[in-house]
Specification:
Helices cover 45% and strands 17% of the residues. It is α/β, with parallel strands linked by helices. It has three domains: 6-118, Probable tRNA modification gtpase trme, domain 1 (Gyrase A, domain 2, 2-Layer Sandwich); 125-208 and 368-410, Up-down Bundle (Four Helix Bundle (Hemerythrin (Met), subunit A)), CATH 1.20.120; 213-359, Rossmann fold (3-Layer(aba) Sandwich). The strands form two sheets. It has a six-stranded mixed beta sheet. Strands 8-9-7-10-11-12 form a six-stranded mixed beta sheet, sandwiched between helices. The two termini are 15 Å apart.
Length: 430
């Protein structure tokens, strides 16, 4: 990839469609428009033009828009051709652009990468955009929108300014520590400032991350054989995802079924029935996998005998098969359901979603990913060490490292490998 290249790509969905949008970005974008349309329209105003190839053959009648840099989406000259969305039209325009000197097809995420490199967005906003493009639920959309909107970046910048002020006090102590007795006062101010900043960042580190929004909360259905797990799973996901049978041990492996309920992504896991002993080696492996699934569960729906489930902070006792008079009864706090008779299912879903909301970041706030959480944790650790130190040089170094990790969060400091990994998540035209 070279920043001096002019790139083009289809930015809309795959044809056929009513409209297909072809984007061009780079120093030769407007020259390409003139080559196809015969003129460069007034900036930011849609203009109807006949597009022709180098032989003068008409390709399409399209709307043409131009956006001069640096005030464009990519920070450089950018143009859009709003074409009729037929496959042949798009192929013909792509062929005409390919034939122009200095133009090449864009790579995945290259438009957004240029926006980042030209200061039109920072790394967090780019990650938020990637999450927004892949969002499938309402909670995912809201969290990605908050990140892309710059709320996280503004908070980082406020923290960076606080760290910078503490660094200035520290440097003043290093330079003028032999001029009077301000050392104690400044040390208290710096210590308090570092601790307050540490606590604010640490709260975000410990808050629910975006991974739960993106991958879905893991809901494990557990209990002994024939307790109704598979029947309940099928009712929750509204399809026959698991085999239902009266034969004990029918489910041998963990069955994963993703589904969205009330705008929240869930991953339901049907598991092998738990029992103390079995002579079936395959069933024994299934039981071990069930235990492993429960260890990694966000919520467990326990269909076994009351009080015999695993020790888990979010275990929900479920009295299944409420239509069966021979079922084992549970206490009043258990949820009574019948997947067959559709009894108690609405209440179960309400309890599930309310429990899930407590495990997810609020839908109107940003949620940090693994990269961001790691850097935030490093920042918080450095601030705590600065607060505990009595050596001005060590304090200054910890504060400097804290500022560097905050810079890495926004992309002020970055590596090419990091950018390659991030922008590879985007489609070619974004």
């Amino acid at each position: 990839m070279r920043a001096t290249d002019t790139i083009f790509a289809l930015s809309s969905g795959a044809p056929p469609a009513a409209i297909s949008v072809m984007r061009m970005s780079g120093p030769g974008a407007f020259a390409a428009v003139e080559a196809l349309a015969g003129r460069v329209p007034e900036p930011r105003r849609a203009s109807l033009a006949v597009l022709r190839d180098s032989k003068g053959e008409e390709l399409d009648r399209a709307l043409v828009l131009t956006f001069p840099g640096p005030n464009s989406a990519t920070g450089e000259d950018l143009a859009e051709l709003h074409l009729h969305g037929g496959k042949a039209v798009v192929r013909a325009v792509e062929a005409a652009l390919t034939a122009l000197p200095g133009l090449r097809r864009a790579e995945a995420g290259e438009f957004t990468r240029r926006a980042f490199l030209n200061g039109r967005m920072d790394l967090n906003e780019a990650e938020g955009l990637a999450d927004l493009l892949s969002a499938e639920t309402e909670w995912q959309r809201r969290a990605a929108g908050a990140m892309m909107g710059g709320a996280f970046t503004r908070r980082i910048e406020a923290w960076r300014q606080e760290a910078l002020a503490l660094s200035a006090l520290t440097e003043a102590e290093i330079d003028f520590s032999d001029e009077g007795d301000v050392e104690t006062q400044n040390k208290d101010t710096i210590t308090t400032g570092c601790i307050c900043l540490h606590d604010a960042i640490d709260r975000l580190v410990k808050s629910p991350g975006v991974e739960k929004l993106r991958d879905g909360l893991r809901i494990v259905l557990g209990g002994p054989p024939n307790s109704g797990k598979s029947t309940l799973l099928n009712a929750l996901v509204a399809r026959d995802a698991a085999i239902v049978s009266d034969i004990a041990g029918t489910t041998r492996d963990v069955i994963e079924v993703p589904v969205s309920i009330d705008g929240i992504a869930f991953l339901f896991l049907d598991t092998a029935g738990l029992r103390d002993e079995t002579d079936d080696r395959i069933e024994a492996i299934g039981i071990e996998r069930t235990k492993a699934a429960m260890d990694n569960a966000d919520i467990i729906l326990w269909l076994g005998e009351e009080g015999t489930g695993p020790d888990h902070p979010h275990l929900i006792e479920v009295e299944a098969k409420s239509d069966d008079p021979t079922r084992k009864r549970k206490g009043s706090h258990a949820l009574t359901v019948s997947a067959v008779a559709d009894e108690g299912m609405t209440n179960l879903i309400v309890v599930l979603t309310e429990t899930a909301k407590a495990l997810l970041p609020p839908p109107d706030q940003f949620a940090v990913n693994a990269r961001q959480r790691t850097l935030l944790a490093q920042t918080a650790s450095g601030l705590l060490e600065a607060a505990e130190s009595h050596d001005w040089l060590i304090i200054a170094e910890h504060l400097r490292q804290a500022r560097l990790t905050l810079d890495a969060l926004t992309g002020r400091a970055h590596t090419e490998d990091l950018l390659d990994t991030l922008f590879a998540r985007f489609c070619v035209g974004k």
